[in-house]
Hints:
Blueprint: E1 8-10, E2 13-14, H1 15-31, H2 42-56, H3 63-76, H4 78-83, H5 85-94, H6 96-105, H7 113-122, H8 129-140, H9 163-174, H10 178-184, H11 195-203, H12 208-219, H13 223-244, H14 250-253, H15 264-272, H16 280-299, E3 304-308, H17 315-329, E4 335-340, H18 346-359, E5 367-370, E6 379-380, E7 383-384, H19 387-395, E8 401-405, H20 406-411, H21 418-421, H22 424-428, E9 430-435, H23 445-459, E10 462-467, E11 480-481, H24 490-497, E12 502-505, H25 507-510, H26 517-530, E13 536-539, H27 543-553, E14 561-566, H28 572-583, E15 588-593, E16 607-611, H29 615-622, E17 634-639, H30 650-660, E18 666-668, H31 672-688, H32 692-702, H33 706-712, E19 722-726, H34 748-758, H35 764-778, E20 782-786, E21 802-803, E22 811-812, E23 816-817
Helix pairs in contact: 1-2, 1-13, 2-7, 2-8, 2-13, 7-8, 7-11, 8-13, 13-19, 15-18, 16-17, 23-32, 26-27, 30-31, 32-33, 34-35
Amino acid sequence: MSSSFELLSHPDRTLKEHLDSCFFIGSEVLKQKTFSELFASKSDVYLLFKQLVYFHDFGKATDYFQNKIIEATKKQNSTFAKKHEAYFSYFEKQKRGNVLAELEKDDRLSRHSLIGSYFQLARNKSEDVIEDLILYKIIKKHHQDLTNFHINSKGKDELHLDEDTIKFLENQINHLPFDLYQFVLPDNFEVEEKDWKGVKSNFSNVLYGSRIARKLKKKKSLRYFFFQHYLYSLLLSADKGDVKIRKGHQENIIQPTYIFPRNIVGDYKVEAFKDSKKKDIDKVREEAYQNIAKNVLEYGHQNFFSITLPTGMGKTFSAYNAAILLQNAAIGTPRIVYCLPFTSIIDQNVQVLTDIFEMTNQDITRISKNHHLSNLNTKFDEYEIDEQEGEYLTDGWEHDFIVTTFIQLMNGIFSNKNKLLRKFHNVTNSVIILDEVQNIPAKYYEAIEVVFQKMAEYFDTKFLFVTATQPLLMPSTEVIELTDPTEERLKTKAYFENNHRIVLDKSHFESGVNEDVEYWIDVFKKDIDQHSEKSFLFILNTVASSQQVFESLKSYKSENRDVYYLSSSILPCFRKEIIKRIQKKGKRKIVVSTQVVEAGVDIDLDIVYRDFAPLDSINQSAGRCNRNALKGKGTVKLFDTGKSKLIYDSTLRDITKFILKEYPNQIDESKLYELNLKYFEQVKRKIQDDNQVSQKLVHCMENLLLEDLAENFKLIEKNYPTYNVFILFDKEDAQHLKGYEFPTSKSPKQVWSEYLELMKIENRFERKQEIKKLRPELMLYVAKFPESKYTPPEGKKDNFIIRDNNWREHYDLENGFKQTPPQISGFY
C-alpha cells in the first residue's frame, strides 16, 4: 500500500491528526498538574498517557473501520473526501468487496477499542503487571463504563481470551495495515503483527486473571484505584476534546487555570455594603471573616480545613475568600470547586459569586454552574464558543471556578461511569469546598476520609468543610478549624455561645407524638392569633402533611399578611419566585414548607415550627429564624407528628432524642454548639466507626471492583419512583402569585411545542443533544408524580416526560401533587 495514503478517524480528520491532537490536549493539561512520587513521577504519567493515546484507536486502522469511516465521509464531508480520493479509490478496488463479505458474517468487526488494548501491552516495559492491565482496561473501556478488574458483574472473566474472541481479533489483525499505522505512531513507538503472539499466550490462560487478582488483593493499596481513574479520565478528556473543540480553537480552550486575585471578595464587600446600615451582628461577621482569612494565610500549606460558624454569620463570603486564598497558596494551579447539597441553592450562590466577579472586574466566563439543569456557557475568556465546546468545558470541569452539587463531586469519584469519571483528573488538583457538609450520610464518612486523604497525599488536593453543624467527617485527620486553629477552639465556641438570637422550645415535643395533623393545625392557629405581628415558618416532614397544614392556614392570608407554600412538589419555576417574595420586606409572612428550606435558603422569620428530625436538621431549620438578630429573640418550636420515621434514619432520631432529654424545655442558641458536638460524637460511635458500608467501598476500591463500588454508593437513596409530568399552564393559572412572570422568554406552551419538534429528529444522537439544550427550560415546568398514586396510560409510563391534558385533576399550582387524584386522564 502506498505510504501516501492516510488512515482516517473521523469524517473530517485523519487518524494521525486525531491522535496528535489528543496528545497535545492531554499534554497541555498535564503541564498544570501536580502529583507526589507516591502516586507516580510526572515523566512516567506523561509516557503512559502517550501510550494510551496512540493505541486507544489502534483498531480504527482495520479495514473494517476504514470502510465505515470512508462511507461516512462521502456522505458528510465531500471536501475532505475529495482530498483523500486516491485512498478511497484504492480501498474500493482492493479491499471493499472482501470487507463487506466479512461484515455480513459479523458486523462487530468494525469496532475498534478491544484490539488496541492488547497491542499496547506488547511495548509496555512496566515491572508492575497490575499497572499494565489497568492500561489494558482503560483502552478496552474508553467508550464504555469501567468494569470490575477481573470478574465483571455479569460473571465474565475480563482477563481471559476465549476462542471466539481470539478468532474475532485475528480476523481484525489480518485486515490491519501495520505499515500504515506505523506512520501514525510517534518516534520510538513500534507495532508489529508478531506482538500478538506473546499477548495471546498470556490471556488465553484461564488462570491468568485469578492469579493477577490475587496479587492485587494482597497489595491492599488505593493507589491502583487512583491510577486507573486518573489515566482513564485524562484519556477521555483528550479524546472528547479533539472531537468537541473546533480546529484552531484548542489553544483558546485549553488554557492554564486562572489564579484569582487574593483580595476580590474583600474589595467586593467594601463596595457592595458601603451604604448599608451596620447591625451589631455585622461586626461579629466581619471579625470572623478577617480571622478566617488570617488563619488561611498561616496554615494554607496544609490540606484539610473547616469553617464552623452559626447560620447567618457570613459563611459563604468567608468560604469564597478562603478558597481563593488557598488557591494562591497552592504549589500548582488548582481550580476551585464549590459543592452544595442541593441544586435548589446553587443559583443563589452562583449569583453571589457573579456579583463579586462583576464588581471586581473578573471574567465571569471563568465560572461554571454544573448540575443537571444548568445551561452551558456561550463564552470562555474572550472567545465565543459553540455548544460542543461549552459541553466539553462544563462536563469536564475545565472552568476555573465550578459551583456544583455533592452528587456531582462524589459520583465523579465513587463511580465506574464513563461520563462521570471524565472530570476526575480535574477533581484531584483542586481546592474543594463542601458547604453544609453535614448532609452527607454518616455511613460513608470512613470511605470518604480514606479517599480524601489519598487525594491530598497524591495530588495536594485541598478540602474545606463549611457548616454550622460540623460533623466528625475526618476523625483520623488533622483538620484546621479556620475560626480557631487551637486545640481548645475557644473562639469557635464563642461565635456560638455569644449568640442569643433564638431559643429552641421543645415543650410541644415533650408532650409526645400526635399523628393527628389537625391537632397541630389548631396549635399553629392559636399561636398565629396570639402573635399577630409575627412571621411564621412551619416545616413538616412529608409533602402530604405540609399540604394539609397549608390548606388550613391559607385563610390567614390578608391585606397585611401573605401565606406561601414550598416543597419539592412545587414547580421549579415557582420555587425561586416564592423565596424571592418571602425575602421581600413589607407584609408579614406565613410559610408552610418541607425540608427544602433548610440548607442555604436565605429566608428569615420570627417563629419557626419544626416537625421532629435529627439534630443537624433541627439546627438548619433554626437558621431560618431571626438570622440578623433584629427582632429580639426568635423561637424554634419542636413538635412531633410521628412522620420522621418515614424520612430519617432511626439511629439518628434516637441519638437526637437521647441528647435533647439532657436539656430543659427552653434551650438557648448559645447551647447549640454543645448539642451538636454531643450529637456528632454519638453519630461517630454508633454509625461511623467500623461501618460495613464504608469498609465495603474501600474493599471495592482496593480491588478495582468498580461496578460493585458504583452499586454500593448512593448519596441520595431514592426509595420511591416518580414520573416526570409536564404542567402546561398559562399565566392566568398562576393566581396565587399575583403578577407572576415566566422565568424565561418562553411560556410553557412554547417550551412544550419546541420539545415536540425536537422529538421528531430522526438521528438519535442529534435529538439527544438538542433536547439536552432545552432541558433546563423544560424541567422548570416538570412536576414529580409518585408512581404509587398516579397511573399513566398504557405505553406512556416509560416516556422521559409525560404531558397530561387534565393536569388540574392531579396537580395544583399552589399546593403541588394532589394526594388522592382520579385514576383516568388524557395524555399526549
